Amino acid sequence: xxxxxxxxxxxxxxxxxxxxxxxxxxxxxxxxxxxxxxxxxxxxxxxxxxxxxxxxxxxxxxxxxxxxxxxxxxxxxxxxxxxxxxxxxxxxxxxxxxxxxxxxxxxxxxxxxxxxxxxxxxxxxxxxxxxxxxxxxxxxxxxxxxxxxxxxxxxxxxxxxxxxxxxxxxxxxxxxxxxxxxxxxxxxxxxxxxxxxxxxxxxxxxxxxxxxxxxxxxxxxxxxxxxxxxxxxxxxxxxxxxxxxxxxxxxxxxxxxxxxxxxxxxxxxxxxxxxxxxxxxxxxxxxxxxxxxxxxxxxxxxxxxxxxxxxxxxxxxxxxxxxxxxxxxxxxxxxxxxxxxxxxxxxxxxxxxxxxxxxxxxxxxxxxxxxxxxxxxxxxxxxxxxxxxxxxxxxxxxxxxxxxxxxxxxxxxxxxxxxxxxxxxxxxxxxxxxxxxxxxxxxxxxxxxxxxxxxxxxxxxxxxxxxxxxxxxxxxxxxxxxxxxxxxxxxxxxxxxxxxxxxxxxx
Amino acid sequence: xxxxxxxxxxxxxxxxxxxxxxxxxxxxxxxxxxxxxxxxxxxxxxxxxxxxxxxxxxxxxxxxxxxxxxxxxxxxxxxxxxxxxxxxxxxxxxxxxxxxxxxxxxxxxxxxxxxxxxxxxxxxxxxxxxxxxxxxxxxxxxxxxxxxxxxxxxxxxxxxxxxxxxxxxxxxxxxxxxxxxxxxxxxxxxxxxxxxxxxxxxxxxxxxxxxxxxxxxxxxxxxxxxxxxxxxxxxxxxxxxxxxxxxxxxxxxxxxxxxxxxxxxxxxxxxxxxxxxxxxxxxxxxxxxxxxxxxxxxxxxxxxxxxxxxxxxxxxxxxxxxxxxxxxxxxxxxxxxxxxxxxxxxxxxxxxxxxxxxxxxxxxxxxxxxxxxxxxxxxxxxxxxxxxxxxxxxxxxxxxxxxxxxxxxxxxxxxxxxxxxxxxxxxxxxxxxxxxxxxxxxxxxxxxxxxxxxxxxxxxxxxxxxxxxxxxxxxxxxxxxxxxxxxxxxxxxxxxxxxxxxxxxxxx
Lengths: 507, 508
Hints:
The structure holds two protein chains of two kinds.
Chain A: H1 13-31, H2 38-62, E1 75-77, E2 82-84, H3 86-109, H4 116-135, H5 139-157, H6 164-195, H7 200-212, H8 219-236, H9 245-252, H10 255-280, H11 283-290, H12 295-314, H13 319-339, H14 346-376, H15 393-407, H16 413-427, H17 431-456, H18 471-486, H19 491-506
Antiparallel strand pairs in A: 1-2
Helix pairs in contact in A: 1-2, 1-4, 2-3, 2-4, 3-4, 3-10, 3-14, 3-18, 3-19, 4-5, 4-10, 5-6, 5-10, 6-8, 6-9, 7-10, 7-11, 8-10, 9-10, 9-13, 10-13, 10-14, 12-13, 12-17, 13-14, 13-16, 13-17, 14-15, 14-16, 14-18, 14-19, 15-17, 15-18, 16-17
Chain B: H1 2-19, H2 22-45, E1 60-70, E2 73-81, H3 85-102, H4 111-130, H5 134-143, H6 145-155, H7 160-189, H8 198-206, E3 212-213, E4 216-217, H9 218-236, H10 245-252, H11 255-280, H12 283-309, H13 314-335, H14 338-369, H15 385-399, H16 405-418, H17 425-450, H18 468-486, H19 489-505
Antiparallel strand pairs in B: 1-2, 3-4
């Protein structure tokens, strides 16, 4: 195949395409400042992210990153600082899918806004950072990628400069983000101090050597470092105890950015957690060195996060806040993937990856519906949404799909990914976590159904004339809904890809 | 590919109808629904299945396709029909078509969404009866809930919100209990099963049962799962004391939704009981529960009928009488005899037709009078002779008048349960038979007050005859009821054939 003759860095093509798109937008902006040509800007971003998505899907289908395929295999670049394997490609797919949906929806949402080009290029830069997070294989590259994803995000949350909520949210997000970055870097330095390496495989090798030898005197140091790394991940994935920023930031940010952060950014946070805790800190060796099994921390975090998120979501009156807390709850479900690693099976982590992909569609769609409602100018509470289905039945049907899928009710994609998580938890022997998952899912149906009830069953509290049908927002919402449904019959390939990817990393 | 075609036509039809203009939605949905109705009748005519789908029978229209590999288990798209599911599929498609026609008058708001949801329900109902893989079955089973919730919630009566949420919560919690139980059972079976195909699970259950799961011993697990699934399905049936959602849902639901709810959705519960509890579980697991279930069944029959007697709302009367009729089905199932189980299955179809007819008739009367209160009207026969005549005929069907399907169904059930082996079977049967007297009582009493006697109804307009498209579906149903009453063997033969292996395999 001709592909084999390409240089190795061609494996990074999806990331490079995203970066190239961001730069192209910058060039466009400098040639043509203050452009309001939404079609070109949103179009370029959409083409860029779809191209990256296409390449990532093609790579996955062609077997790039799959060990044992002739000529391909797991591709390591820059002495193992960057790795392109199936898991990296899987998460690049998640990130690019969300990016594409978000930029298409932004076409309408950001209409009339002053900083069009900046907005799109920041989105693409953040997407580049998230895609790099998926491939980062050393604590340094992880940190750089993390910052590349975070800094544009802070600006994006605050991009509605005249809106107090947006600016306040941006500032909060930035301050907490800076704090968590500091904690994360401190954690990196402690791990470096204990092992002397930053590259993940090298850390693992050193840990094994230490465990085989006298164990060294750095067990406590290492444990503290790992705990701080967990804190950094918890921030990025909006998990307890670093979840406080999420409701504020998601509520204040423009809805497409809330969708972007709660879907793509969360997935990117999880991929570094998956990689660090499978590659760098093998469960048995690390446990022997620090005296505690670190999966225990994730068991607790998973249960607490899903419970806190769900109970808080159930009490919200504001739709966007409800979705923000539900996003915390879903972080708890995905944490099961880390909690179950002790059993050494790929099922539970693969299930977490599947959930993130399905979540990328259903949660993005839900936030984009909020964006549509903001575009229409209906209010923010459940009551304001009453009776929307009269004017916009298709968008509201899509909303019902997102809500029931988030709750894990058949016949939608969310049912499968939650069921896989459930089985994975049982297989890993985490009966408590499995029960918590089921109970929380059952409870979550209450507040998800409440939104469906508002738009479909309740009578409107205000008279409304016809509502517009903005093309971009509608297209993004309908595509997300169709994919959420299609993922039910089409779950087989997703499950296979996720399980294979997880198996490679865990082995 | 026949079953797939049925489901696909209904699903695509649902989408098309959903976006069609309101003006043509009703007619469009009717035309679309003729396709599955016609196809399923053709399937019925060419049906060549033998035996029971779960007990190594030969399936008709079988197709099986690998879907997802989950750990050690295969999940596959596995559908097929046997003598139990075939009549129920035909019942579904016919009732949906008739329900669509009967909605033309009462539904005058957001028509395209209404008919779209009805067709969506049809697709899922066909799926429930045809699916033979647990996951395929469960997905269809759950997918019925959402559209029915919306039908009641959007187009229902004054207390629609309460009724819709009650329906949803009751049945969804029940599904969750049942789902958890079946999953625990499959995991408990260990290496004996490699897929979620119902026939394979059944074979493993009858051949040793589960080893245990998370420290629970095998037989205990099996018994616990039996109870959990029974409760899960009993809510759907519904059996006393899980019946309270039903009258609320029925009274608030628009007529066509009531027709589908009573006609087909309740049968999902009894069908699942037959497939899971009374086919899958070996005799020694079921045996200790037979008498308690028989007690529950008889209580449902008598208590349901008594409640119906106490009502003055025509729709409530019919709704409670469904509770009573479903009690007969449970009694027939628990009898474990050819006629008992066969009669129960026959009753599912028969009751689907009769209750559908009754709800339509009540709906037609309501369209004209805008009241359903027996006390508000009198002598309706004077103004709406045809609609009321059909109501009377349907009532006699309910009472089990010979030559109507209700008679055949109840006769089979009583015949089967009287000769059953469980303790005090004749006593239970005799008590249940008393239910028929009560049924006759409340129906005749209601008819006497509302339909006969001098005409009186306080309206400021002239009550006139129902339009043809309101009456035509009822005539079709009445025709089917009489055909099945005169010649029950039309479907009883295939039912019998599918029921035999269950009874032979587990003689109590």
